[in-house]
């Protein structure tokens, strides 16, 4: 369980059940959130984006060493 404690500019300050606070980008949250709202957070891997990043990094390294 996570609770929206407050908003500070572009950040939401979120409190955990254990009273640990952390900042989360406000842009990644629903627009209608209010202070005191309880939220769920789920993390999912995006395999396509991960593959693109790996390919880009490999390409940059290959180009760096080819010169």
TrEMBL record:
Record InterPro entries: DUF3006
Domain of life assignment: Bacteria
Protein name: DUF3006 domain-containing protein
Taxonomic source organism: Desulfosporosinus hippei DSM 8344
């Amino acid at each position: 369980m996570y609770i929206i404690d407050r908003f500070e500019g572009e950040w939401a300050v979120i409190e955990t059940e254990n009273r640990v606070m952390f900042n989360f980008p406000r842009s990644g949250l629903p627009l209608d959130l209010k202070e005191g709202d309880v939220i769920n957070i789920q993390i999912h891997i995006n395999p396509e984006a991960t593959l693109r990043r790996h390919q880009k990094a490999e390409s940059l390294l290959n180009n760096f060493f080819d010169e």
